[in-house]
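Closing statement on the zinc ion sub-project.
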Amino acid sequence: MNDLVIRNGKIIDGTGRPGFSGDLAIAYGKIVSVGGKAGPGHREIDATGLLVTPGWVDIHTHYDGQVAWDPYLSPSSWHGVTTLVMGNCGVGFAPVHRGKEAFLISMMDGVEDIPTATLTAGINSEWESFGEYLDALSRMKRVLDVGTHVPHCAVRAYVMGERGAENQAATPDDIAQMAAVVRDGVKAGALGVSTSRTLVHRTRDKAYVPGTFAGLDEVIGIGRALGEAGHGVYEIISDITGDDANLDWMARLSAETGRPISLAALISRRSGMKMREVLEFIERSNGNGARMMAQVGARPAGSLMSLQSSVHPFSTHRSYRQLMAGLTHEERVARMRDPNVRAQILNDAPAVKEEQTLAMVANFQHHFSLGDPPDYEPTADSSILERAKRMHRTPQEVAYDTLLERDGREIIYMPLAYKGYSFDGILPQLTNPNTVLSLSDGGAHCGVICDASMPTYMLTHWVRDRSRGERLPLEFAVRRQTYDTAKLYGLLDRGTLGPGMKADVNLIDFERLQLHPPEMVFDLPANGRRFVQRADGYKYTIVNGEVTFADGQATGAMPGKVVRGLQAPA
Ligand SMILES: [Zn+2]
């Protein structure tokens, strides 16, 4: 007798092959049979009209804080994610010396915009080594599987103390010690190591995170530790400048150690390569024995500016700050509707010097109403600037009134890299075999970004709704966030629906699958705020054979585990 039988679904099995109709049977947390007619089950679900897919494997998240207090790991779990990988981009909470946790918290606050008060209240650091950290995670219940990297920033601060935090050069002895920490962490079950080589990442006090300027001897040293451990991914976020400008060391290291490198390339004017050149380099290098993957997202990271966000076009105005101080959201909305207040704020100007923030609050040609349902690929003529021109008004006026729509909850969306006002440039990245679907950043950037919904967006936008250009086949889009992501991390027990595989499954009403606009909630420890985003259309999510969500409601089942190391195939 099967534990669970899903009848008559359209099975999209994660391998990329064409979907087919049939039953899926599950027993003891594993898939027993796929397709055809299955024998009876203790529980049966009629999946007529539903897609049956593997659970999503999201490899780029920052739930390192939230994992300590939230067994649901929302919003990713609301979007069909059944395995997530955190500890990306060099930041995380282990290893750590007792009493030094505050530095790692300041780093996570600065880099990922997760409030210090929230992290301090939410994390009970009862570990020192990375292995003890994994043990602590294993003692907690949760709704899905989590795996993590050893974060280089934490390792550097742990081994080198102040010298490490201040980005002084590592001695050969420091490097040997860091390599040992990484090796032990991976042997204890980490899925790899991660490092940050971008000037974008700062601590709360605006200092560059440890390892930003690490020499090649250091980054190669910890990469070789991965090679010695024999598994794990080297996750690197880089501005592609300096030692990284031509990516040579990464290709050589990967070929030498056999370990895959997963690169989040932050391309800017200063970068030594454009994204197209990065992809060409990786293709050449992989032909010569390297294993490099470029991380790509289903949409560019987008800043969400609303009256509840960290930043919006008027948030730095002195008048706004004075007039709105101490008010609740509802009171603020009411006061902003007062014509005198409106005039006063509109006559003022942003009080910021920092170029990046100024560009953000005043860049009206890249500001769009996100709307409901949200439109992440808007046309150029729908920007706030273009709309204002047509209406013979100032962009500030249009932005002001936009923020007040939907009871003051409308969002001004600013995609951070939106070439040609279209996603046509993203499409070849999504189909390139040397890329991996990534960058959802779940759990991070709480006050201004919410891209954890990317797995859902792959299906709604890229498979079904996109009207401005080519779309992707359903089977391919599913494979990108199941088989392909799981395989990179050696999680060969999941990512496809086949006999003996882990029973992580989504049942999706594809016609009804729909994103809601992101919304701000105040449910983090110490009343911290974060954007979340809901979706309709996930009928059931199943982890280890147990139904964790039914019709968007959590069932209370907590079958999630900490994934440690390589997972053997069925
Ligand atoms: Zn990241």
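The longest strand covers residues 2-11. With this model delivered, the sub-project is considered complete and its resources will be redirected to Aim 3.
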